[in-house]
Amino acid sequence: TMPKEPAVLRQNILDTTAAVLACGIDPKKCFLFRQSLVPEHAELAWILGCLTNVPRLLRLPQWKMKRASQNTEGTVGLLTYPVLQAADILLYKSTHVPVGEDQVLHLELAQDIAQHFNKKYGEFFPVPKAILSEL
């Protein structure tokens, strides 16, 4: 949600890919792709954003904390990021999503959006459940 220098962004993509591969992810056994090259993520985020009300997004604690830490009124990208996360989950019709405690409310938003979409247009998206790691 923060502007990045293009060269830094390209290097971050390469570094992240290298880290994923170094962790043992085998590209022969799973799909490894750059999300920004899949236009359906942004397209679904737009559709879901048209079904999500602004007051719900303004209540998310991550919005309040990030906005305060940036000393600004906040950007549209920051506000709508949880809708993009919901699109990332729902696009693949995920049934279970590993999340940390700090992302539970965002997953609840994805669940609510899926239920709202299904009620309006018919059963289409599974309502994803959280998989919380035990520490």
Automatic annotation (TrEMBL):
Enzyme nomenclature, EC number: 6.1.1.2
Superkingdom of the source species: Eukaryota
GO cellular component: mitochondrial matrix
Signal peptide: none
Enzymatic class: ligase
InterPro entries tied to this protein: aa-tRNA-synth_Ic, Rossmann-like_a/b/a_fold, Trp-tRNA-ligase, Trp-tRNA_synthetase
One Gene Ontology molecular-function label: tryptophan-tRNA ligase activity
GO biological process: mitochondrial tryptophanyl-tRNA aminoacylation
Record keywords, A-Z: Aminoacyl-tRNA synthetase, ATP-binding, Ligase, Nucleotide-binding, Protein biosynthesis
Database matches in PANTHER family: TRYPTOPHAN--TRNA LIGASE, MITOCHONDRIAL
Family per similarity comment: Belongs to the class-I aminoacyl-tRNA synthetase family.
Name of the molecule in the record: tryptophan--tRNA ligase
Organism: Nycticryphes semicollaris
Gene: Wars2
